[in-house]
Amino acid sequence: MNAATAASRLVIEGLNKNYKINGGEITALQGIDLAIREGEFVSIVGSSGCGKSTLLRIIAGLENGYSGDVRIGGRRISGPGLDRGMVFQEHRLIPWLTVEKNVAFGLNGLENDKRDTVVREHLDLVGLAGFSKALPHQLSGGMSQRVAIARALVNNPQLLLLDEPFGALDALTKIQLQQEILRIWEMERTTMVLVTHDIDEAIYLGDRVVVMSNRPGTIKKIVPVHLQRPRDRSSYDFVQIRKEIFAEFFAEAEKPFAYAI
């Protein structure tokens, strides 16, 4: 392991993941090697079924039965932990709990006053200070995702995992929440990994964009994004990076899915 890898927050080496199905085997991920630095924002893009969400679930400790090594802060990931927060495409709020109780749901061992302070701080962070007593059905989709982000951050995780968190939102709300998550990242400097189908979103948010191949999912290319923030999606440099990533997709589209059965 080189010095750069040793200093990384998340290190993935030789990761392979197979699924048994219909008496055979499908290879979902093959030979994944990736190191993500402390405080870095990395976007992962790929076609449907390429294994990018599986990769995120392995990092979260929600998937087992793989070969290779996945470590955070030098420790091998063996299951879920408070050092990782995760935001899904659906907010997954508990419908009968208020906003503040949803955010506090994962907090254990804190005195009431301390817990209330931490929850209040995180609702302030996502711009929902005035909605602490609201129930999920009283919120818009974008507001619900803000609550989900606050809940994922409330334990001060070392790593925030974002699994297409804005995919179900309308275009304007999506852009607003992209700006919001970027603001939070700039304030907190939490290491973040985003899985998305949206190439513009990947470039707008990420320090690097990891392009995955069709199944079996491999890392086809890692594109650095050396653009100052805030980023202009219509700028020449932004468009050139978009073209570079699209070229990888067009080349990939000419290949059939590979099934190892």
Plain-language structure description:
The chain has 261 residues and is an alpha/beta fold. The protein has a domain of 63 residues. The protein is 34% helix and 25% strand. It is globular, with a radius of gyration of 19 Å.
**What fraction strand?**
15-25%
Shape designation:
globular
- What level of helicity do the residues show? 25-40%
Describe the sheet with the most strands: 6 strands, mixed
Work out the number of β strands: 10
For the termini, the CA-CA separation is 33 Å
Number of helices: 8
Strand order of the largest sheet: 6-7-8-3-9-10
Following the backbone from N to C, one meets helices and strands in this order, namely HEEEHEEEHHHEHEHEEH
- Radius of gyration based on Cα positions: 19 Å
Task: List unreliable stretches of 5+ residues.
Answer: 257-261
Class from helix and strand fractions: alpha/beta
Look at the structure and give the mean pLDDT.
Answer: 90
Descriptive key words:
261 residues; alpha/beta; six-stranded mixed sheet; four-stranded antiparallel sheet; 8 helices; 10 strands; 25% strand; globular
Strand-helix topology:
Layout: H1 3-6, E1 10-21, E2 24-36, E3 41-45, H2 52-60, E4 66-72, E5 75-76, E6 84-87, H3 99-104, H4 112-125, H5 141-153, E7 159-163, H6 171-188, E8 191-196, H7 199-205, E9 208-212, E10 219-224, H8 236-253
Parallel strand pairs: 3-8, 3-9, 6-7, 7-8
Antiparallel strand pairs: 1-2, 1-4, 4-5, 9-10
Helix pairs in contact: 4-5, 5-6, 7-8
